[in-house]
Write a structure and sequence with these properties.
Blueprint (H helix, E strand, L loop, with lengths): L8 E5 L12 E6 L2 E7 L3 H20 L5 H12 L5
Amino acid sequence: MAERKANAAVYLSKTAAGLAAEVGEWADGTADSGPFVACTHENLSIAIRWLIIQNRLVQTNQTAVAVDSTAILQQVQRIRTPWIA
């Protein structure tokens, strides 16, 4: 991944025998450069979709807006306070 400056990778094999015994037909994880999937060719489309979803989750978490719960609670309390004439 580093050599190709990739931020995700699919390691593909025609059969499970081409992957490490502990991988079987599917393994996924994260390296320093980003997420990866090791799989057989039958799972290639799923692997690509998986990596796209992982990327979207990272982007969503980075752009999520923090909620100021203290300010919200103060506003709710202010609204609940009855008007005194």
